[in-house]
Amino acid sequence: MFIEQVPGFVRNLFPKALWRMNPDEKAVYLTFDDGPIPVITPWVVDLLGRYNIKATFFMVGDNVHKFPQEYMQVIENGHRVGNHTFNHLKGLFTGTKEYIENVDQADAFIHSNLFRPPHGLLRRSQYNELSKRYQFIMWDLVTRDYSFRLYGEDVLANVKKFVRNGSIITFHDSMRSESNLKYALPRSIDWLLEQGYEFKVFK
Fold it and tell me: Which positions are annotated as active-site residues?
């Protein structure tokens, strides 16, 4: 549970960040990290389109630089995008000046006021500076679709076990997650719809 659903004391470290939306509203917010990636990101966009669902994609700037067509496909299909640094940096292991510069480098390609730190790891000084310019979007449920120790059935089970009103759900449109993602994402959407959840995006 510590991994799939972040405990309160961790959430309190970043008080301006959004970890969960309205707990009184039966809605969820789908998010995807680490793209865009050819084949995988277009597959996600196509799947979401079949359900008429919008999501938010937190993108690595270098991937946007290398794969602008996939980036534009996300934009043109009405999804939101967010900054996920240029090189997927872990803030705790990066100097503040270098980290901020890396986020700015990504911003030149992504153009968004939303930010999600890779792995949720960053220094207080980095958070303080970036929160002046960005709305931090964290997560209420990370599916762990990236884990080589889990199968697609396990990822789906994580969604069913930990989702709740207002959950910000994180999947990954990455090569590492491909097998688990392709199994769990459509089944998760079907199940969430059956449970009466509405899919929303950040304003």
Answer: 33, 172
**pLDDT single digits (tens) 9-21:** 888 889 899 999 9
For the chain, give the secondary structure using H, E and C: CCCCCCCHHHHCCCCCCECECCCCCCEEEEEEECCCCCCHHHHHHHHHHHHCCCCEEEECHHHHHHCHHHHHHHHHCCCEEEECCCCCCCHHHCCHHHHHHHHHHHHHHHCCCEECCHHHCCCHHHHHHHCCCCEEECCCEECCCCCCCCCHHHHHHHHHHHCCCCEEEEEECCCCCHHHHHHHHHHHHHHHHHCCCEECCCC
pLDDT of residue 2: 58
β-bridge mates for residue 31, sequence order: 56, 170
Domains of the chain plus CATH, in order, are 18-199 (3.20.20.370)
Give pTM, 2 decimals: 0.96
The tokens for 182 are: 């392709």
- pLDDT tens column, 38-74: 999 999 999 999 999 999 999 999 999 999 999 999 9
